[in-house]
Amino acid sequence: MSADTIFALGSGQPPAGIAVIRISGPHAGPALHALAGRLPRPRHAAVATLRHPASHEELDRTLVLWLPGPATATGEDTAELHLHGGRAVIAAVEAALATLPGLRRAQPGEFTRRAFANGRIDLAEAEGLADLLSAETELQRRSAQAMAGGALSRAVNTWREMLLALSARLEATLDFSDEDDVGEGESALPPGFAAGCTTLAAQLHEWLARPRAEPLREGFRVVLAGPPNAGKSTLFNALVEAEAAITAAEPGTTRDVITRTVALDGVPFTFVDTAGLREEGAGAVEAIGIERARAEAVAADLVLWLGPEGQGPSSATLWEIEAQVDRADAPPKAAPMHRLSAQTGKGLATLRTALVTHARAALPKPGEAALNQRQHVLLSDVATVLDHAAREPDPLLAAENLRLARRALDTLVGRTGTEDMLDALFGRFCIGK
Ligand SMILES: Nc1nc2c(c(=O)[nH]1)N(C=O)[C@@H](CNc1ccc(C(=O)N[C@@H](CCC(=O)O)C(=O)O)cc1)CN2
Fold it and tell me: Where is (6S)-5-formyl-5,6,7,8-tetrahydrofolate bound in this sequence (predicted)?
């Protein structure tokens, strides 16, 4: 338990209808008492007049909650002030809280970090929570909810128990191996040991084979490519502008690249337009378009190729698009996946539907927890050492493999780990979470 008591605005940017200030730590009760003049009945909403503890000036007349630990989100004593959401109200209450002994403003993610430190959530659940807070589409929300709700954590606990059982049986045979009763050509391993490792590894491989968290978090990446005047930007605008509700336009890190993240039918997409090619000479232009496309295709989940048929980059899934069917001078394609005119809208709805269907198949299913890079690396390590253990004739080496596997599982859920990694994760949260 931390000695400091922290407080922060947990609700959104003011001004707002209501602003929730959360206070967590051993001084949460005394702080609420100092402002409200009493401690309300635990876990029951109460109306109170909050006053400055020194001047007794009225700060707000509002709803408060007293939530004694450890059955709270952070595991600590918690108080909540549900204020009128004006900036000055919040500032006055925060200033009053800051005068109280043992209280200080929280750092980003500090409430969640305490929940983790107090064993209320594990690391995989905290990662799920971070994704839940940044979720902007239904698909993102449901997958993050599964992770935050412990889908991976429960699996890890099961695997950990299976590992411990395998280790225990192995250690038992090791204890007896002194007696030298293992005959020539006879395995020193307990019966069914290899099969046990293989069964466990199979469960890990099933998780490892699932679609990953990153394309879900960042949006299924669709790159529009082809030479200038092929209709890329018109198509890009048609695809992103119709669904501008959650767009976040970012100037690309690469020169001349525009990316925009949108949701189509609840599925997150990042569309990439390789726009703004500077035309230097007629012959070179096509080559530039193709070169740009090659570079972008490496990171793409799908390339929409608007250039000459069969000349698109080969490194990604690619759909041949004939994009300017309204124009008489546009070169036709013999066998395009889609024929459309972003200008007139012809063929656009069909393309959108096809994109959504295609991305859905490549992204985690609704409500399916997906592994992020860190989790994937660690689970791969576990699967690898288990594959080794299954083939290992020497019980001592097999036991060491199982220990390595257990250590990686512990790191996965944060039973062991480095401060750096925790700093990086909890730094992703906003203040007040
Ligand atoms: N006002 C408010 N809303 C909020 C939060 C909050 O802290 N305050 N949350 C902030 O995270 C989230 C809800 N998370 C929570 C997680 C656990 C417990 C909790 O007290 N759990 C106890 C008791 C459960 C019970 O009474 O049934 C437990 O699990 O033992 C509360 C909130 C979202 N909404």
Answer: 22, 80, 120, 433
